[in-house]
Amino acid sequence: MTDNETGDATRVPATAHPPELTYQHERDSQHLRLLSFNAQVGIQSSRLHHYLTNSWKHVLPYGGRLSNLDRVARFITDFDIVGVQELDAGSLRSRFVDLSSYLSERAHFPHTYTRVNRDLGQFAKHSLALFSRLEPEGVIMHRLPGPLPGRGAIEARYAMGEGEELVLFLLHLALGRRARQMQLDYVAERIQGLRHAVVMGDLNCQQDSREIRRLVARTGLMEPMACPATYPSWDPRRVFDHILLTPDLHVSDVRVYNVALSDHLPVGIEIEIPRRQALHDARH
Question: Is this prediction's pTM over 0.90?
Answer without folding.
Answer: no
